[in-house]
What we know:
This protein has 270 residues and is an all-alpha fold. It folds into 2 domains: 1-51, no CATH class; 54-269, no CATH class. The protein contains 11 helices and 2 strands; from the N terminus they run E-E-H-H-H-H-H-H-H-H-H-H-H. The protein has helices at residues 41-51, 57-67, 69-77, 87-104, 107-120, 127-138, 143-158, 166-191, 201-220, 225-260, 265-269, and strands spanning 13-14, 21-22. Strands 1-2 form a two-stranded antiparallel ribbon. A hairpin with a 6-residue loop joins strand 1 (13-14) and strand 2 (21-22). The longest helix is centred in the C-terminal third of the chain and has 36 residues, at 225-260. The chain is globular and about 70 Å long. The protein starts with 12 loop residues before the first strand and ends with a helix. Mean pLDDT is 79; it is low at 1-9.
Amino acid sequence: MNDIKPILSQESVECKNCDYNFKGQFCPKCGQKVITERNTVKHFFKLLFDSFDIDKGVLFTARILFTNPETIVHDYLNGKTKKYYNPLKYLLVLTGIYAIFIIGLNIFDSNIETTNELLNGDANSTEFQRTINSYIRKYLSFFPILMIPFYGIVSNWVFRKPKLYFGEHLIINTYLFAQYILITTLVVIMISPFTSIYKLLFPLGLISLLIYYTYSSRKIFKQSIVKAFFKSLLVIILGMMFFMITIIVLSMIVFTIMALMGYNIQEIVK
């Protein structure tokens, strides 16, 4: 079969997406491209390569966020979005890849043991902790999305110039946090042969998060390196703190409801 081609005639066609009648190659109502051929293997690979196009898509977005984060933020907030990957999709794709690596290489479990040692002086965890860790492992890809609103709140507070809406801070922090996930994933790949340093991934991740946030904030908000550093530190620390407080409060509410329903909370957390 031939590759997918648009209709070039001026005959009126019905959009397969919204049923609108029009003439041309693209629906003026929803933007759907007119396609007359069936999807082929060739078309599938074309879609795949388009996703990694250096002039648009994932790789282009990643490159710009490394070299000129202020450009993608300025363009996206001003409506120039077509050549950039959607920030939420970008975050989901990268966190999915990140989760595959750290779970597949047992880096997640190694860092959980280190955390237990620091908090309890014992690498072993209770049944309750193992249950919580199991849920975190299962839904690891969604945790960054839950954290973004808290980063956005603090970012909106500390970066007051230029004056941006809260939603715009959400977009900025989604892109920046996604890029941090990409950096951490690259670090995971580099350290994968050295199992002895797996336990250092989370501390290294926090350091890389601070460095990248400082670098990007300096460019995006036109700050000095010192101001960008301390404001980025506030965004990271307070954002995580508010996120953890929210989780604790919600957990307390759940445990209270369970206690009122007759469950033995001590048995659950034992």
